[in-house]
Amino acid sequence: MENLQRTHTIDKDETVISIKGLYKSFDELDVLKNVNLDVFKGENVAVLGKSGSGKSVLIKIIVGLLRPDKGEVIVLGKEVDKLAGKELDDLRLRIGFSFQSSALYDSMSVYQNLAFPLTMNVKHLTKKQVDVAVAEALEAVGLANKSNEMPADLSGGQRKRIGIARTLILKPEIMLYDEPTSGLDPTTSAEINALINEVQERYNTSSVIITHDLTCAKNTCNRVAMLIEGAFLKVGTFEEVFNTEDEQINNFFSYNFIQ
After folding, report:
1. What is the per-residue pLDDT for 129?
2. Are 207 and 139 contained in the same domain?
3. The domain that contains 222 carries what CATH number?
4. Same domain assignment for residues 126 and 84
5. What average pLDDT score do residues 171-195 get?
6. Which helix (H) or strand (E) holds 31?
7. In contact, 70 and 221? CB cutoff 8 Å
8. pLDDT class for 3, splitting at 50, 70, 90?
9. Residue 258, CA distances (Å) to 63, 193, 212 in order
């Protein structure tokens, strides 16, 4: 795998996500068991794990879509499970969530898909201000000429890019990516990985990238967190995590390429 150099400046004096002693169960199924993680300002962190390991549950807890059974989740200085209503909505406006499916509205053009969250959440914008914001977001993801296209006319990689552009239009401080390279061919996956790095540099975002794609993790993240059996078995750089004789981590490495 190509190892891109990660040179972005990280402020380790500022923690934007702090997770301590997190537990989450569904009936008799214990999904997260004593999860601990800090994400620093300007940092990309990959959460690696097999399907069903709790990665998506974790990301939903971070944005307040699920509440933890136990533990503390602080995002941008706010304890998420203590928020409701406008306070929770205000926090979510500072977080961009790039869905695995891109979650575009098929009945809307690319322009309308991007303008929608902006006009819904930022009042009193002029048409020109919306036009400028949409153009800037499309330019940032390399699709400046796709404004009038419909989602059905886009490739899978283009849909992923438009989905990312829609999250960027509100200029979030944190980006959450859910399986950003899932279902993409290697060339398109490499383009999305490069885009994730460009977003980090251009917008100085902090990101959590949920993935089982080792190439994505290696090429986009400053650190990776290996989620096994509901807890982080190891957290560190890609090399620190995978330069190990731990059988569970090595099994995941093999599983990744078998899949």
Report:
1. 93
2. no
3. 3.40.50.300
4. no
5. 90
6. strand 29-41
7. no
8. very low
9. 32, 21, 12
- Tell whether 73 and 19 lie within a shared domain: yes
Residue 52: the pLDDT is: 74
Separation between Cα atoms, residue 111 and residue 145, nearest integer Å: 10
Q: Which domain holds residue 145?
A: 101-171
Instruction: Identify whether residues 50 and 111 lie together within a single domain.
Output: no
Do residue 162 and residue 71 come from a single domain?
Answer: no
| Closest among 196, 195, 110 to 147, alpha carbons compared | 110
Which pair of structure tokens corresponds to residue 176? Answer: 């959450």
pLDDT per residue as tens digits for the range 39-56: 999 999 999 987 777 888
Strands 206-211 and 174-178: parallel
pLDDT higher than threshold 80 for residue 93: yes
Specify the number of domains making up the chain: 2
Q: For residues 245 and 59, what is the distance between their CA atoms, to the nearest angstrom?
A: 29
User: Do 201 and 166 lie in a common domain?
Assistant: no
> Which spans in the chain are helix H?
55-62, 85-92, 110-121, 127-140, 156-168, 186-203, 214-220, 238-242, 247-258
β-strands 44-48, 223-228 pairing: parallel
